[in-house]
Amino acid sequence: SQSVETGLDPRPRASKSPKSARLPGPLFQALRSRKSRPQARGSFRKESSPGKAGRRYLFNCGEGVQRLMQEHKLKVARLDNIFLTRMHWCNVGGLCGMILTLKETGLPKCVLSGPPQLEKYLEAIKIFSGPLKGIDLAVRPHSAPEYKDETMTVFQIPIYSERASPVDQSQASSSSLPEVAFMFSLSQLHVKKGNFLVLKAKELGLPVIVTPVILQILPEEICTPPDPGVAFVVVECPDEGFIQPICENATFKRYQGNADAPVALVAHMAPECVLEDPRYQQWMERFGPATQHLVLNESCSSVHNLRSHKIQTQLSLIHPTLFPPLTAPRCQEEHAAFPVPTVRGECLLKYQLRPRREWQRDAVIVCNPDEFIAEALELPNFQESVQEYREATKDVPASAAKQYPEIVFLGTGSAIPMKIRNVSATLVNISPDRSLLLDCGEGTFGQLCRHYGDEVDRVLGTLAAVFVSHLHADHHTASLGKPCPPLLVVAPTQLKAWLQLYHNQCQQLLQHVSLIPAKCLQKGAEVSSPAVERLIGSLLAACELEEFQTCLVRHCKHAFGCALVHTSGWKVVYSGDTMPCEALVQMGKDATLLIHEATLEDGLEEEAVEKTHSTTSQAIGVGVQMNAGFTMLNHFSQRYAKVPLFSPDFNEKVGIAFDHMKVCFGDLLTVPKLMAPLKALFAGDIEEMEGRREKREVRLALLSGRGPQERRVGGSGKSPHSAKSVNHRGNPEIVPSP
């Protein structure tokens, strides 16, 4: 069978005039309306026989695609063809992470088809991904012949905006101008032979007999009629400038009306202003009444990450302020009316092409909070532990309304986005109208949308700066809606090379970024550039900070931690990714709050050294050495999807971060008391993890000839001050030794 699986397209609303055009980029996105959906997915899946999976194709790869595929059990390892309609961050924001994941799964080859800038983009991501060895990335530009395999043929046709000059069109084949060239994919399934009719063959005497007999039996007499080669189209029309060129395109015209290969489905990636244009609607009508039309844009309303909603709903039963229920922005635009059969996209909506053309909604996500609540309330000891928690915290002074700073954990997992924990991002709301972001991993914008809903525009308007701790992909490959003035970005100098290449080859964005080298904020660092000095002054003034200090930490090369000292006296320290680091301890002395990574559980100290991360007790130990008022642990390995294993070193000054958890300093006294209800809520997961740990310790004990307790390493023991590391994507690096 063949089917098209759809998701929501993150197309930002197209501007009515060129003056308000958007220029999204890899770190942020300059949008008038920033409520576009964060995930995009439209994949074609073919199964060669019942129960046997075949090829899988992906059309565009926006942020959050691999997280969706992982949650909904769509195996990434079978994804060997990716088609891109445009080199725009909405289309390619998740491509870097997807390629790295495909590489780790052992996929030998992936074919990428798209605009001419695609090859340059792949070269650019090597700045932070390292050499992409182990996977053959075959790039097929639009000028290459059509792609063809045993299932279908895909044609890519470039379309140029009528606003583009002939010079622009010629440049689009080399260095590119992002809003000039655009591709559409027209995919045609091959004719499928009919099935063999056994009974009919017997009636006609087909079985072998002893006496030679000449029979004339035609194939159509013993087979079902062949299935014609239907086609489907994926078309992107980002603004009105592309409407007329699409309507006049000769290739499209051949598939409209009485075409040899009827078009079963047209997927439209277009904003409402395009869809309601009479020219575009007339073009849709020319496909005929038998063609179905699928709309993918920001007006589509659907829940994507169901598990995230489930966990947050259950956690909110414990403390609804620390764990506020998730929401989503509502579309403010009216939907266009269509003269043809049209369906708006939903996550996991399917359209089956063979054997029978039909919409399939059996997998469409339905979010029912009442079911999540009922499930939690049935867990042993959960209600009792929640009641005990409330009794224990009723005498704790309630935090004043709108008390700041407010810390919102948007991503608390490591390496790759997963169904419950997204990758690194922490929002620090310094005041009601000022905030900054500590790291900005893929999917951060989606997390903001789910956390703030209709308030996301206001929150993004308060964002003054972003701190990027290092160049691993799980810490900076996100887009954010951000208007002028330029966003202040504190990051390793090497980030500029990536932004420059993306600016040159895909989308112009550097005019929206003011980069402050992280090394210039180290203690005692000399700032020779007056321009950088002015930017540092702007950073301190915008964030109401007395000091913004960085230090090198023990992870990969050019990895930094930071300390924020507010004019009112509070101090927040962020470790980024690191092993226990003396430089961080000294910089963070007497911090009000330490946010420290705790990637691995106790007992995995050797693995922590190999991967240059910290264990739970090591992170707690750093807080003790620092004399931090409180330590929040985050950046957990995805093996601890729901909750990490609790360490004996946990105390009244230690807490565990969850995605969408919101805390202010007044809440910190109540956070350690969450342990009992958390253990009740995740009892099954904790039991499973403890079982794995016991088996590991027994296995290691047998290998070493010692008992399990002898094998267990002390929690806060120090690691060596230098080590060869392997980063989260397997690239060898040298670890600095502060």
From TrEMBL:
Its cofactor is Zn(2+). One of its GO terms (cellular component) is nucleus. One of its GO terms (molecular function) is metal ion binding. Homodimer. Interacts with PTCD1. Residues 434-636 form the Metallo-beta-lactamase domain. PANTHER family: ZINC PHOSPHODIESTERASE ELAC PROTEIN 2. Zinc phosphodiesterase, which displays mitochondrial tRNA 3'-processing endonuclease activity. Involved in tRNA maturation, by removing a 3'-trailer from precursor tRNA. Associates with mitochondrial DNA complexes at the nucleoids to initiate RNA processing and ribosome assembly. Keywords: Endonuclease, Hydrolase, Metal-binding, Mitochondrion, Mitochondrion nucleoid, Nuclease, Nucleus, Phosphoprotein, Transit peptide, tRNA processing, Zinc. It comes from Ursus maritimus (Polar bear). GO terms for biological process: mitochondrial tRNA 3'-end processing. This is Zinc phosphodiesterase ELAC protein 2. It comes from the Eukaryota. Residues 1-52, 701-738 are annotated as: Disordered. It is an enzyme of class 3 (hydrolase). It is found in: Mitochondrion matrix, Mitochondrion nucleoid; Nucleus. InterPro entries: Metallo-B-lactamas (IPR001279), RibonucZ/Hydroxyglut_hydro (IPR036866), RNZ2-like (IPR047151), tRNase_Z_dom (IPR027794). Residues 55-94 form the tRNase Z endonuclease domain. Its EC number is 3.1.26.11. It catalyses: Endonucleolytic cleavage of RNA, removing extra 3' nucleotides from tRNA precursor, generating 3' termini of tRNAs. A 3'-hydroxy group is left at the tRNA terminus and a 5'-phosphoryl group is left at the trailer molecule. Belongs to the RNase Z family.
